[in-house]
Structure formats: C-alpha cells, structure tokens
C-alpha cells in the first residue's frame, strides 16, 4: 500500500513539474523536472532533453552543468566536446561549476579523461572566472597555479596564492585551502624562528 502511495505521489509531482515547466516556462521547475527524470525515473535521455532546452532557452546554468555531466558520464551519451560546449554556455550564464568544468577540460589533450584539448591560457581564464563566481575549489586551484606559475601565462606570485587560499578557506569554506594555509603559515613561522634560514 505504501509503495502504491509513493508511486501516486511521484506521478503527481511529475505532472506538477511538467505543467510548471512546459506551460508556465519556469526555468527552476524545468531543472527540477530534469532531475526527477534522471534520478527517479532513470531516464537520462528525457532528462537530457529537458536540461538542453532549459540551458539554451531557459538560460539556466545549473541545467547546462547537469547536461554536461551526462555527456561526461552516461555511457550511451558520452561526448566530452558537447559537455564542454554546454559548460561553456553555463559559464557565460554565471554558473561557477560550469566554468570550473570548462577550465578542467582544457588541461590536456587526453579525450579519455574528459578533456577537449590543451589550452592552459583558456583553462586559467575559466578557473579564474569560477573562483570569482564563488567556487572554493577553483580558488584553491588558482592558489596552486600561482605557487608554481605557468610560463608565458601566469607569473609565480606567492602573495596571490595566499590570497586565493585565504578566500577559499575563510569566505568559501573549502577545507583543503585551510589546510594549505596552515601548512604555509607553519613553514613561514619555522623559517622566521630558525636563524640558519637566512630570513
């Protein structure tokens, strides 16, 4: 009896979401419909259609990102080029996760790892944008970039590295950045206290 009630409630929810999406054109409800189709009904194909329409017509960055994830992971749909295209669109719409994914896609020529071609300058720009939009992970990645530098693209800048990890830790609550800050402060403190360090 309980299983029947759950099925009835699920059917009602689907009907409500379809109405809100298709009739009222509410982008957030369209995204929820896509999630319902993907997670509850296990229909990735239908979910992808909803995400795609909502990304392009509804200008919903979250739907762009979710469609990109399907293109990355769904066996019958894998197409990293399409994933990049929709993540790029989502980034333009202000979605931090899309910007980060688009950046990561430009780190390598290895298509098997979800990349679309090595372009470190473009990767840096996308990750930088993701950080600006509030991704703690992206800010932490940028800190690592500034620690090492990228010849011809980004100069080594430990001050910038510290600032990005500080933002990722204190403002965006990204624990790995906090650990990195503690390690940096410990090294600095030891160097200051050790007369042989020359500091």
UniProtKB/TrEMBL annotation:
Keywords: Repeat. SUPFAM superfamilies: HCP-like (SSF81901). The keyword Repeat applies. It holds the Pfam family Sel1. The keyword Repeat applies. One of its GO terms (cellular component) is mitochondrial intermembrane space. Belongs to the hcp beta-lactamase family. This is Beta-lactamase.
